[in-house]
Amino acid sequence: MNGTREVALVDLLDRLLAGGVVLTGDLTLAIADVDLVRVSLRVLISSIGRGEDR
Amino acid sequence: MSELTGRASYAYAVARSFDPALLEGVRGVDDAEVHLVPYREIVVIVSSVPLAEFDETALRAKLERLPWLEATARAHHAVVDSVATHSVTLPLRLATVYRGDERVTEVLRQSYPRFRAALDRLAGKVELEVKVYTEPQATAPATSPSSSSPGRDYLRRRRAQHRARDDAWQRAAAAATQVDTALATLAVDSRHRPPQSPQLSGAGGENVLNVAYLVDAERAEELAAWARRLEAEAPGARVEVTGPWAPYSFALPDGEEPA
What is the ipTM of this complex? Predict the structure, then answer.
């Protein structure tokens, strides 16, 4: 839908970690949504800060 | 059986049935081919993943690694995006994993009425994202005739910087209100998100508005172009439009019986 243009990771994570239908999967039972978002943002911030490969 | 083979089913999206041949060549997480798990006129798009890589401990560790998170997010999105070109699509949250396709069928059967209602609501709709930013700060003008007091100069400079920043914010906020008011009347639904941190988005300027609008698919281009044009009418603000996206932000709220 977005064509061939590369989608910004931050926009993608906004949707994939905070949007989408939440179903309780068999293997991810204990991972709360908030945890997911916090984890990913921490990862993003630290990796950008260090100028690591993204 | 899945326990023995060590495979699990990664679920990307729920959609109205469509010809599986349309997904030929579409690959998901771990570059695996995707397939459809059907129930009545609804399907779930899944691919097979190693069970051990998606249990809670493994997942927790992997989410801390940006390259894995990015690759998985992009793979998930690529599947959702390509399904959305063929059928009404309800994207699922990242890393929704079941112990096999039989479990996926079971979930589909249990949540059928809710999926059906959601697909009806989203038929012919796409999501547009509109963000309004302040213009990146120009460097504060050097204070002209410098007085005899460096302290006073400093304070004057600081005040000027603050004023410039406040003005930039005010201008962008005014533009944001204008954009949001206008689009809200044209959209079917909207979701306001917290502004993105400039550190994450890499965008110059401060994000003052971050909204997803659910709009009729045929009008998406028109509305996007219209939102972009508002930028010219709103000096001091930058308007960014992304999409069309599958309706990620308009999925059902949680709170039903765990499937």
Answer: 0.79
